[in-house]
Request: fold
Amino acid sequence: MPSLWGMFAVFFRTGLLTFGGGYSILPVLHYELVDKRHWLSELAFTDIISRATAIPGAISVSAAFLCGRLLRGKKGSAAAVLGMTIPSITTMIIIAAFLFDYAQHPPVQRFMKGAAAAVTAQITYGVWLYARSAVRSIWVILAAVPLFAGVAFLGVHPLLVVAASLLVGGPLVYRKAQLKAAHSFGAHSPAVPSPGDQSPESEYSKLME
Amino acid sequence: MILTYLQLALSFVRVSLSAYGGGIAAISLIRHEVVVIRGWLSIEEFIRVVTLAEMTPGPLIVNTATFIGFRLAGVPGSLVATAAVLSPALLLLTVLLLVARRLKSQRKLQVPIQDAVKPAVLALMLMAIISFGRHAVTDLSTAVIAALALLVLLLSRRKVHPVLVVIAGGIAGLFLL
Reply:
């Protein structure tokens, strides 16, 4: 288990090395926490990103909060959020105070335009990382299509999209779990997993197969 | 002065509560608060601030809030604006975690919630790619940079820190754009 200071340092670095905010942080977080340090499993990472997206606010900070909470409880979430935000607050104050005009120079602008194009790729790659682990069934994609159409073309509020997904999908997944449980444990068993089957991974794959 | 702090806090709490899909989605909300409602910045100044916030490390929402807070009320102002834009989400998450702990005894409810939210998350993510990409990929050169960057990220997984790809994109921009 990581130390509080170690966690602060990792999130500080992540905050310092992420541009563009939002989903561009996913590849960096995945690299630091899943690939390099193995602090989080692929499944825990996916779950954290789901939650950070489902509520409004800065995704990267919400994700840091949830990672910290999962790894080291309340103190961990404080360390992660501080690590994530201190670099940007400090650099932004320094720039606002001294360097605002310098940032308008054409070479700086050209560098930033190129970097922004690469950040688009970084965001796309972040979504791919999420989708790869979250899409275990064709139904996830089939359900995402109308939701995306609603939010992109009809101007539906994102909160309504999240609510619709939960209210329509929730009972369906629940029903499927019950059918599955009835099938495997006999008709009278409730839809509770057996004691040896507590990990979310096994339960998850059982539901979506 | 106190009034400025209160207005800053109120504006950024409002932004935070409807900011879905990360930074880019929040920008139009912040513009509405800062340019239209409060008149703190002109639209030209605002665009300069956003460009700057995009090129500064860290979350876009935090950067913009810090900058505008600093412009209006110095370092305390920047801290007030940043705290205001972050606290609603963190409070909401704390409440959700408490609810999730209650549900822990009933795993049969927890897993359907985790799975059922995924289509919505994917839809919001696709939306975020489009709204960011629309501003960043505007011509052939930026499209080529983006495509190459994506290729490198996909092929070099676990070996290359993603920020190196972004810096490479910036250097390419220096020469190509």
